[in-house]
Design goal:
about 350 residues, mainly alpha, about 60% helix
């Protein structure tokens, strides 16, 4: 009786090719060392190129989403630095972060090249073909995170904090007695509503060239503004019925870590179709076997998303959802790209 073929039969190997593809543990470690050194050199070069534009990237790209969200919810629109050197450290982190993003295509190539070093010649060909796809998927994941997930996640988190309104602060008789508050109501001396007199202009946009001494409220920005000889002074105003008990004031380092985790999580999560295709194409498992354990695979995807996503439910869902879709896409790709095994011959 003849042996049944493997799930994904490969061409008959030339003994010389088999021997050439065989590597010792020392050779594998040397190959890994070479790939790591090349990746680190690429990271250093890319980081050096990012030293000058890092300031613009931090202000106009990385911090812009959180500033917009904080302004939307009437929170302070600046980030905290709680240590003397924290701003400098953050600037260095931004340089490294942007350098890593620029160098990521080359780093991914080195990772796939290390995997290919232990494969046969015909297997190396299709592994190298996966490198551009892998880079494209990583950049697509990072773009998806920045364009959609980051803003939605921040809006949810800041909005949840703003949900806790200030309690009523007017003490009752018992509370006044306990606090020793002997104040009594004073007669009002302000003009009645509608009385003649000066007032503050309520505008939807700033005037083009206001004279010195002008005072107005920008209703769109929610800011009180005063024109002085040196420029415009402004302060944010919040409606009394919308004042929050919790002031959301992020540390710059914590926010940068949050963005970095999301970027890496979505970049690597978008590699799922390649992982599925690689497992099927290399013959480790078949597409039917993966499909039979679909529920287990989806559960593992959800658990993995919970491990790499920031600790909030919305970020978890926004990561797990695309990962499940990408898993199904990778399975469909494998079914169409990898031929089904031929029926076993009798004998």
């Amino acid at each position: 009786m003849s042996d049944a073929p493997s799930p994904n039969p490969s061409p008959v190997q030339d003994p010389t090719e088999v021997e050439a593809a065989r590597m010792s543990l020392g050779e594998h470690l040397e190959e890994l060392r070479t790939r790591v050194i090349r990746s680190l050199l690429a990271l250093v070069v890319a980081a050096l190129l990012c030293i000058w534009p890092a300031r613009w990237l931090l202000v106009n790209v990385i911090a812009r989403p959180v500033i917009l969200v904080l302004e939307r919810h009437g929170q302070p629109t600046n980030l905290l630095a709680t240590g003397p050197a924290e701003t400098l450290v953050i600037y260095i982190k931004v340089v490294l972060f942007c350098g890593a993003l620029i160098a990521s295509p080359y780093v991914l190539y080195q990772a796939w090249a290390f995997v290919a070093s232990g494969l046969y010649r015909h297997e190396k060909d299709w592994v190298y073909q996966l490198v551009p796809v892998s880079v494209g998927l990583f950049l697509a994941g990072a773009t998806f995170m920045y364009a959609l997930v980051l803003m939605v996640s921040l809006n949810f988190l800041v909005g949840f904090s703003s949900w806790f309104n200030l309690p009523a602060t007017k003490p009752n008789a018992l509370e006044r007695a306990l606090l020793g508050d002997n104040r009594t109501a004073q007669a009002e001396t302000r003009p009645a509503d509608g009385a003649a007199g000066g007032g503050i202009a309520l505008l939807n946009s700033d005037p083009a060239s206001p004279p010195i001494g002008s005072v107005w409220i920008n209703l769109v920005d929610g800011q009180l503004k005063v024109r002085t000889s040196e420029g415009i002074l402004e302060t944010r105003m919040i409606r009394a019925d919308q004042a929050s008990m919790i002031a959301t004031h992020f540390r710059l380092s914590e926010y940068l870590t949050y963005v970095l985790i999301l970027t890496l999580a979505f970049g690597f999560a978008f590699q799922i179709p390649l992982v599925v295709y690689f497992l099927v194409r290399s013959g480790i498992v078949s597409a039917d076997q993966i499909a039979n354990y679909r529920k287990v695979a989806i559960m593992m995807v959800v658990i993995f998303a919970g491990m790499i996503a920031p600790p909030d439910l919305l970020s978890h869902l926004l990561l797990a959802g695309p990962m499940i879709v990408l898993f199904e896409a990778g399975l469909l790709w494998s079914r169409r790209a990898v031929p089904k095994p031929a029926a076993a011959a009798g004998g």
